[in-house]
Amino acid sequence: MTTTSPSREGTAAAPPPTANHSSLIHTDLQPPPSPRTHRALRRLQSAHTLGAKAASQGGSLISPHYRDALHRNASPVRNAAPAPAAAATTTTTVAGPPVTTTTQQKQQQNRGRANSDAISPMMHQMNAVGATRRTGISKPVFSHGHLSLQQIIREGPKDGDFIGALESARWKVVDEGVKSAEDGMSTLRIYVWLVLLDAPIMPTDDYLGLIHRGASPAYAKIRNDTFRTLTTDPLFRRRVSEASLIRLLNAIAWKLHDAREEERRANGTSASSRPGSSHSAARPTRESLTGGSMSGASRGGGGPEPGTYVQGMNVLAAPFLYAARSEGEAFAAFHTLLTRECPAYIRGAMTGVHRGLALVDKVLAIVDPRLSMYLTAKGLSAEIYAFPSVLTLCACTPPLPEVLKLWDFLFAYGPHLNIVCIVAQLTIMRSQILQSPSPNKVLRSFPPLNADLIKSVTIGIIKQIPDDVYADIVVHAQ
């Protein structure tokens, strides 16, 4: 399948007031409150607005049958033929009228955050070239392209076309994004993640069983991490309690502990029977993002040994709890990410993270030799400034709503692309780095995420990466 580069939607103008804004308009007509009631009023308005939006978006958006049937491979390769669709039986369990997307909803969906940070001249040039290349090029046609992302997830593939539905969903995630409120909340996002991650269905009782086992061997480490998770993010602290984070991490620790015990007992079992080693599904290719034609990169064979709890998993778990509608959903998605997408990040001495850091240096040297040499001359390698960004898939950099949007992209085309996203952030801030006599101070804290800009630059960088380096990126976390 040959596609063109997805266009990056610009920041749309604010849409006209809708029914969801009527409550705010009505409130503005009331007599002004006293200074002491401003905070309470803002809290009431926020809750009322979020409640109205949630009610207008409806209830459950995906049937478990469809969630199990839509498969994906987490590590995209560039010229591999899609694997044949697995046979599956689906049963429609969600009834209701067709979901339509109005022009106003599309404007709200495509509306991005204002980018007040100055962009380097190189970035302006890159965006201008990208815009020129996209001029006059129509969007690729997919079998489910006429449906909204919500319809694809809710209703499942038409006529058993799982591959077409999955490719359509991936493209819509990149081209249109997942509809959400300004604080990143969405009734759809967690189900999109579960489908893109190919997370298995997990009964709630299984999660509760892990909780009822009590403290895991890693409980002390978990309690030492949870209280400092995203402490400066008011959105996260308001929605996710520390107790919820402790339960999720403790359940994950038990699951990883059980896998290690099983591995010790087996001690010689073939790699193909290890958990997470079997993962065949339709694979997204680099051409689906860049429109190019390049040789394929293959995944490494053999299943890795089970991992264990490591410091930093608390930050990696935070977006799942924020986006999910239950701890069970967050657990299923988080466990799949750890054991299937990046098991080397939590195994041994976190070898996958260190391989990823070495690749950040290598890709930066290819994309921007001047910036790379400047950092090298200052003794700054990615090991020094990019470790948290690699380990947490950039979740350590605020704001959280932008993290969620970036994760939509990473889960659609492979979390390994986080390596390229980090390089994209470095090129965005290159002017500030090059002008600083002490760039370590600049790199100590990355600027706030702008997911749309990072995605656009990342897609441009992918075209410049040699095949062998891209192949290393694909498998570095396995």
TrEMBL record:
<protein>
    <recommendedName>
        <fullName>Rab-GAP TBC domain-containing protein</fullName>
    </recommendedName>
</protein>
<dbReference type="InterPro" id="IPR000195">
    <property type="entry name" value="Rab-GAP-TBC_dom"/>
</dbReference>
<feature type="domain" description="Rab-GAP TBC">
    <location>
        <begin position="183"/>
        <end position="414"/>
    </location>
</feature>
<feature type="region of interest" description="Disordered">
    <location>
        <begin position="77"/>
        <end position="118"/>
    </location>
</feature>
<feature type="region of interest" description="Disordered">
    <location>
        <begin position="1"/>
        <end position="37"/>
    </location>
</feature>
<dbReference type="GO" id="GO:0031030">
    <property type="term" value="P:negative regulation of septation initiation signaling"/>
</dbReference>
<dbReference type="GO" id="GO:0005096">
    <property type="term" value="F:GTPase activator activity"/>
</dbReference>
<feature type="region of interest" description="Disordered">
    <location>
        <begin position="264"/>
        <end position="306"/>
    </location>
</feature>
<dbReference type="InterPro" id="IPR035969">
    <property type="entry name" value="Rab-GAP_TBC_sf"/>
</dbReference>
<dbReference type="Pfam" id="PF00566">
    <property type="entry name" value="RabGAP-TBC"/>
</dbReference>
<dbReference type="GO" id="GO:0044732">
    <property type="term" value="C:mitotic spindle pole body"/>
</dbReference>
<feature type="compositionally biased region" description="Low complexity">
    <location>
        <begin position="80"/>
        <end position="109"/>
    </location>
</feature>
<feature type="compositionally biased region" description="Low complexity">
    <location>
        <begin position="270"/>
        <end position="283"/>
    </location>
</feature>
